[in-house]
Amino acid sequence: MKSIGAIAVTLFTVVAGLAQASDVDWRVYGGDRQSICFYEANGVVRGLEGHIRVWTKCVFHRDMGVKLSDNSISKALEKRLKSKAVEKRLSGYVPPIPTPQEMDNDTISSLLLAEEIANTGLVKPRGEIFYELSCSDRRLRELSVRVYENNGEIASTNEPLDWKYVPPEGNAAILLKILCHA
């Protein structure tokens, strides 16, 4: 009886993840030594005066490499994710980061798989930020921020912060370049 319950929970998790996958399109835009960052391409809102609103999330590298599990449902999901990443690559898609020509095929393939994993919602982010970007002024501000602590606590705010100018390099500059020139 316990195994039926475990299978049901696993199946629900996979189905919920796949349901979310159809609604989102997380794309790599940056990261650092600890994490990889994505923006949600389907949710980009272009407003007045060249302002853009977009959700982003960053996930620890170590969490992206976690095997989903050893049961057959998870292996099927992992195979499907890899297949979708290969399909994207064969169609000519490359992650929208500014210098894909400097990456080798293995790096591009890894980033495509990371996007597919992010789309499932099965990997918990270290944080999520809803940004507003001002393309003409090269500024941004956080409208909503959620940070997930190691102890399971969530620190969040929904108070818009002050506008900040974006320096010429770094993740914010990459995000601005991708979304303002799209």
- What fraction of residues sit in β-strands? 25-35%
Low-pLDDT segments = 1-21
Helix content: 25-40%
Main sheet specs: 8 strands, antiparallel
Termini separation: 53 Å
Compressed to H and E, one letter per element, the order equals HEEEEHHHEEEEH
Number of helices: 5
- Indicate how many domains the architecture comprises: 1
Total count of strands: 8
Shape: globular
Measured on Cα atoms, how large is the radius of gyration?
18 Å
Task: Compute the average pLDDT.
Answer: 80
Given the helix and strand composition, which structural class is it? alpha+beta
What's the SSE blueprint?
Elements: H1 2-21, E1 26-31, E2 35-40, E3 45-46, E4 51-60, H2 61-64, H3 72-90, H4 105-120, E5 127-134, E6 139-148, E7 154-157, E8 164-165, H5 171-180
Antiparallel strand pairs: 1-2, 2-4, 3-4, 4-5, 5-6, 6-7, 6-8
Tags for this model:
182 residues; single chain; 5 helices; eight-stranded antiparallel sheet; alpha+beta; globular
Protein described:
The structure is a single chain. The protein is α+β, with helices and mostly antiparallel strands and 182 residues long. The protein has one domain. Helices cover 38% and strands 26% of the residues. It contains five helices and eight strands, in the order αββββαααββββα. Strands 1, 2, 3, 4, 5, 6, 7 and 8 form an eight-stranded antiparallel beta sheet that branches. A hairpin with a 4-residue loop joins strand 5 and strand 6 (139-148). The termini are far apart. Residues 1-21 have low confidence and may be disordered.
